[in-house]
Design a protein that fits this description.
Blueprint (H helix, E strand, L loop, with lengths): L1 E2 L13 E2 L5 H22 L7 H19 L4 H14 L1 H19 L2 H12 L2 H19 L2 H19 L3 H18 L4 H10 L3 H29 L9 H10 L8 H11 L4 H19 L1 H8 L6 H13 L2 E2 L5 H4 L3 E2 L6 H19 L2 H12 L3 H18 L3 H18 L4 H15 L7 H10 L3 H4 L4 H15 L10
Antiparallel strand pairs: 1-2, 3-4
Helix pairs in contact: 1-2, 1-18, 2-17, 3-17, 4-13, 4-15, 5-7, 6-7, 6-8, 6-10, 7-8, 7-22, 8-10, 9-20, 9-21, 10-21, 10-24, 12-13, 13-15, 14-15, 17-22, 18-19, 18-20, 19-20, 19-21, 19-24, 20-21, 21-24
Length: about 500
């Protein structure tokens, strides 16, 4: 076994661990067993599988991978070191998740999310709601370069608006995710956009321009699908929402001034403030807004009789950290106006940690590199090279459970192969983004899938089919490759 350097700090410097003694069947065995166990577990537990049993299945999958590693002379220490590195790499994501939970709590208590829902119900009709959600999230994500921040801010509000209109939450989540990942994918501010271009050796803006050829058709198809769904679905929100508006207005002090808080958060992200810092400031500003605009609710959450320093502190801190439920005169809205704070993110964090254990062991035994190299050797045509890259990105999103590795490993593995075929690096960078970036959110145990399911409150299985942009993008890039459309070659 050979490891090319100690793991560095930045994703683009990620070392690829190669184990020449490992066969492709041994590399695939843990994946096959994991998928079978997860399928059976979901059959037994259904929606409750993410509450803990799936997490343990991931650990069992890691144990199978470890047995394969022991057989191929990989030490326990090596596997543990790789697991530790993987978990360390997710520390930023875990902290962001905690801040998202805190932000959701104070934004609910302060009336920010209820105000978004209140005005959104009046401005967005059910027929165009899904398409409008895609466009809104595309704009926000393009401006911020962050799909995660988009889901955590406007995404949460759109889920609430859709529920009030009687729209399937899976549809709304699919529209939100499609828009969020469209903007993230082509924004020069996005870390994945910069990472994919760096891995392939393409200039950033050449990469962005070349992506538009496949991205525009994909998002156009998604937009048409959501327009079709909107005009053909039976929405209960079409009947009468006056009672819901009255209930929201009587419970919260609704004000457009509350939108200053999300505007500040979005402005900070556009100005390249670290997302963790921006979200924390947003959560704290939400607490201040709650004290100013909703003092009666702060007192109620704190269980006090009047607003003073202690009651205010307890009410805001409760919203930041644990579950709060705000009752309205309309029983249908009561479940909508609840938030779980940082505590509500723990099951998602638990899932990410267990996924990183599986991914770390798979990386340590050389399984990820073996799967990618075997796929590369299977294809000998230009289309086959593109197909191999797509399959490698998908395989690593499933096995390593990490979006960045799905860009880094295939990017390194296929860089020379594309150049040897006379293909410009933008072909590789575009394919990495068309698959590695956007499909990560479709895997329940991937960090992106776990994050969005936790933040939006919609299981991955429920939004999978409606995240049209995300699953159609790999097909678009393969279609372009098969028809040799916009396949740029290196200058002779």
């Amino acid at each position: 076994m050979r490891s090319e350097d100690i793991k560095p700090e930045t994703p683009e410097q990620e070392a690829i661990i190669v184990n020449r003694e490992l066969t492709i069947w041994e590399a695939l065995l843990p994946v096959f067993i994991l998928v079978c166990m997860l399928a059976y577990n979901i059959f037994i537990f259904e929606d409750a599988a993410l509450s803990g049993s799936n997490q343990f299945i991931l650990l069992l999958g890691a144990a199978v991978a470890a047995i394969v590693g022991f057989k191929n002379k990989v030490s326990y220490k090596q596997m543990l070191e790789e697991v530790g590195h993987n978990i360390k790499s997710t520390s930023g994501a875990i902290l962001i998740l905690l801040m998202v939970g805190a932000l959701a709590g104070t934004w609910m208590l302060s009336g920010i999310i209820p105000s978004m829902i209140y005005y959104g119900l009046q401005l967005l009709s059910p027929t165009i709601f899904l398409a409008a959600s895609l466009v809104i999230c595309s704009i926000i994500s393009l401006a911020t370069g962050s799909s995660w921040s988009t889901s955590a801010t406007v995404g949460i509000a759109l889920i609430g608006i859709g529920q009030t209109m009687g729209i399937n939450p899976g549809m709304t989540a699919g529209a939100v995710i499609s828009g969020a990942y469209f903007g993230d994918k082509i924004s020069p501010l996005s870390d994945t956009t910069n990472l994919a271009s760096a891995m392939a050796g393409a200039a950033l803006f050449d990469h962005v321009r070349y992506m538009l050829y496949t991205t525009i058709p994909s998002v156009s198809i998604a937009l048409l699908v959501f327009l079709f769904l909107g005009f053909n679905a039976d929405h209960t929100g079409n009947i009468d929402i006056s009672d819901k508006l009255a209930a929201i207005n009587s419970t919260f002090n609704i004000s457009p001034l509350l939108f200053l808080v999300p505007a500040v958060v979005i402005f900070m992200i556009i100005r390249k403030t670290e997302p963790l810092v921006a979200l924390m400031i947003g959560a704290l500003l939400g607490g201040v807004a709650a004290l100013i605009f909703q003092p009666h609710l702060v007192v109620k959450v704190a269980g006090g009789t009047g607003l003073d320093f202690n009651t205010g502190y307890k009410g805001v801190m409760t919203a930041l950290t644990t579950k709060i439920s705000i009752e309205t005169p309309n029983a249908d809205l009561n479940e909508l106006f609840s938030a779980k704070g940082m505590e509500g993110m723990m099951s998602t964090i638990w899932l990410i940690l267990c996924a990183m254990v599986f991914g770390g062991v798979m990386d340590a035994i050389g399984a990820l590199a073996r799967i990618s190299s075997s796929l590369l050797n299977m294809f000998h045509t230009v289309f086959g090279l593109f197909a191999s890259t797509v399959l490698s990105c998908l395989a690593i999103n499933v096995t390593a459970s990490d979006q960045y590795l799905a860009l880094v490993i295939p990017g390194k593995m296929y860089n020379k192969a594309f150049r040897d075929r006379g293909l410009h690096p933008v072909n590789l960078s575009r394919t990495l983004e068309d698959t590695g970036t956007v499909t990560s959110v479709l895997v329940p145990w991937n960090t992106c899938g776990a994050y969005n399911a936790g933040v939006l409150g919609v299981p991955t299985a429920d939004y999978f089919v409606y995240a049209v942009f995300n699953w159609i993008s790999p097909f678009t890039t393969l279609t372009f490759a098969a028809l040799r459309i916009k396949i740029k070659e290196l200058a002779k």
